[in-house]
Specification:
CATH architecture of chain A: Orthogonal Bundle
Order of helices and strands of chain A: HHHHHHHHHHHH
Low-confidence stretches of chain B: 1-19
Number of helices of chain B: 15
Largest sheet of chain A: none
Strand order of the largest sheet of chain B: 1-2
Number of domains of chain A: 1
Low-confidence stretches of chain A: none
Distance between the termini of chain A: 20 Å
Structural class of chain A: mainly alpha
Largest sheet of chain B: 2 strands, antiparallel
Oligomer: heterodimer
Helix content of chain B: over 70%
Order of helices and strands of chain B: HHHEEHHHHHHHHHHHH
Radius of gyration of chain B: 25 Å
């Protein structure tokens, strides 16, 4: 659509859009504002200014352990998703065989399944195996929901790529491996990067899978935060939340810089 | 047929003595690791969960035969469970409709403004997607708290619009607001990409022929953006129906959803077959919405070809 907006309709649109932007940002800004409140309870408006709640949170063993667990989990999840997802994306775009579109819907199906149920089903399976290590269970569960994202972003960048370049490399005598590393991979790198970063963040924020597979010893950040929310009423909870928001902002900026947000989300 | 045509078209770069067909088949094997992984950790457990919903649990908590449909009957007969089921549908439906109404202005503004404005709006819409749902629901708790220390009550009291603090938190409305906030991007993004594909000349033509802006929207923009609308509706509805965190933090006892019921059955009551049954019901709801939207989209395509 080319034409700029004009007239009354345009003003209505701008006002609603502005209101929605406020609606989207409000809860995050409120959390950030009360995190520096110099009071023993979370209240609005915040009173005074202090960073002591951050000091408290950054000494909180549970939170730091959770942060470390979530970071390692998200990183391993991303690696696992790449290992499974990138070859699968190649099969879906470059291959040609009976039932290819069926295979695609199979591989992407965890995205339409309610994550809560995926986690429950997995808990049932893993407990019948007697797999007691929560970290392994969490890793498996997170890969199930993140690998399809990697497939989706890599499929779309493989479809966009110019296949003539590969052909040229092969004609000029490059081996299949060399063609892959020197021609194909650099071209689909943005898609791979977008998929990885998104997988990382989906894993880092995941609740509906983790709630089934975590235990009291190994709980990722969202679960620890949820527990704190119910039990603690001082501004250390908003301080914790603000740290999570700031980490997300860093992630978003990296994504936007590296590949462009719209592409990464691929909705 | 078309597959064969694609085979020859899609397998250049293959200069070996091997036939293009064999190459494209062997490329297909690259999907095997992921397929195997999902089979073990997704398809099999999901099928097993369905199986569990037909098993019975005796007084000692041992799960096994005989097969029974009693859990499904149980959901349909007990008022509490039926209420939770309708609550879930109602909250998911209202959230999706609210998302459609609010997403159109935002998506149209995104598509029609300068690139920089589009970029800023995209950033604001997408960024919260990456913040944990727990944090976002907590933010709404702080806004909606029922005492004068909640942001909204404080604002309304300070401006003297109300005299008594409002009961906002722990209501169905709070759950809808929270869900709208969390899943709004899932509506805006498909809608914006559908709107971006509309030929601007169509709208210009309608306008030049004298149609007012609302008529242009109703007769040109809206019908042509249906694919994005349906995709967004399906996503928002499915995700809202499957929520857990939002109803826990923002809802009260009257706004319990299927997700909460499943968690209770497994972690509190230890009734696995019944928990599995509720999970199956949730999956059926989500699949039904997906199937419905697929039909709508295919029906449209068919009609377009026919005319």
């Amino acid at each position: 659509m080319s034409g700029r907006l004009e007239g009354v309709g345009a003003w209505v649109l701008y006002c609603v859009t502005a209101a929605m932007m406020i609606f989207i940002l409000a809860p995050l800004l409120v959390v950030m504002s009360v995190s520096v409140s110099d009071s023993y309870f979370v209240t609005f408006p915040p009173q005074g200014f202090t960073l002591s709640w951050y000091a408290k949170v950054l000494q909180d063993r549970d939170f730091l352990d959770a942060l470390q667990l979530s970071a390692v989990l998200a990183f391993s999840t991303t690696m696992g998703s790449l290992l499974l997802g990138v070859p699968a994306a190649f099969a879906l775009v470059r291959g040609s065989f009976l039932g290819q579109s069926f295979l695609k819907s199979l591989v992407l199906s965890p995205l339409v399944f309610p994550a809560l149920v995926t986690g429950l089903a997995l808990l049932q399976l893993l407990s019948s195996f007697g797999s007691g290590d929560a970290r392994v269970n969490l890793l498996i569960g997170h890969i199930v929901v993140t690998a399809p994202y990697v497939v989706r972003t890599v499929v779309s960048s493989l479809q966009l790529m110019d296949i003539n370049l590969e052909e040229a490399a092969r004609t000029l005598g490059a081996s299949r491996m060399k063609t892959f590393w020197r021609v194909t991979l650099p071209q689909i790198a943005p898609g791979v990067a977008a998929g990885s970063l998104f997988a990382f963040m989906v894993s880092f924020d995941n609740y509906p899978i983790s709630m089934w597979l975590a235990n009291s010893e190994y709980s990722p950040v969202p679960l620890v935060l949820m527990r704190q929310l119910v039990n603690v009423f001082d501004p250390s909870v908003p301080a914790m939340s603000t740290i999570i928001i700031l980490l997300a902002v860093v992630g978003v900026l990296i994504l936007e810089r590296l590949v462009g947000l719209r592409r990464a989300v691929a909705i | 047929m078309t597959d064969v045509a694609q085979t020859t078209a899609q397998a250049p770069g293959d200069l070996d003595e091997r036939s293009p067909w064999r190459l494209s088949l062997s490329v297909g094997f690259l999907a095997l690791p992921m397929l195997a992984f999902l089979s073990i950790f997704f398809f099999y457990p999901a099928a097993n969960l369905l199986f569990y919903s037909f098993l019975s649990q005796d007084a000692k908590g041992i799960i096994g035969r005989p097969f029974t449909l009693s859990h499904y009957v149980h959901i349909a007969e007990v008022d509490l469970y039926l209420k939770v089921f309708w609550n879930t549908l109602q909250i998911a439906f209202i959230t999706s409709i609210a998302a459609i109404v609010m997403a159109y202005p935002v998506a149209i503004t995104m598509v029609k403004s300068k690139p920089i404005v589009n970029r800023v709006i995209s950033l604001i819409v997408i960024a919260p997607l990456i913040v944990s749902v727990v944090v976002r629901a907590y933010g709404w708790q702080l806004i909606l708290v029922n005492t004068p220390t909640g942001l909204l009550n404080w604002l309304l009291l300070t401006l003297r619009i109300i005299n008594e603090p409002l009961e906002l938190l722990y209501t169905k409305t709070a759950v809808v607001i929270g869900s709208l906030h969390v899943f709004f991007p899932m509506m805006v993004l498909p809608l914006a990409s559908a709107l971006g594909k509309i030929d601007p000349n169509l709208e210009d033509a309608a306008r030049m022929l004298g149609a007012p802006w609302w008529k242009v929207f109703a007769r040109v923009t809206l019908p042509l953006s249906i694919p994005g609308l349906v995709a967004g509706f399906t996503l928002v509805f499915s995700l809202t129906a499957g929520s857990f965190v939002i109803p826990v933090l923002l809802g009260g006892t009257s706004s319990t959803m299927l997700g909460n019921l499943i968690e209770q059955q497994i972690f509190v009551v230890y009734d696995w077959p019944f928990g599995a049954t509720i999970a199956v019901v949730l999956v059926i709801v989500v699949f039904a919405i997906n199937a419905l939207s697929m039909r709508i989209l295919e029906g449209r395509r068919f009609r377009r070809i026919a005319s």
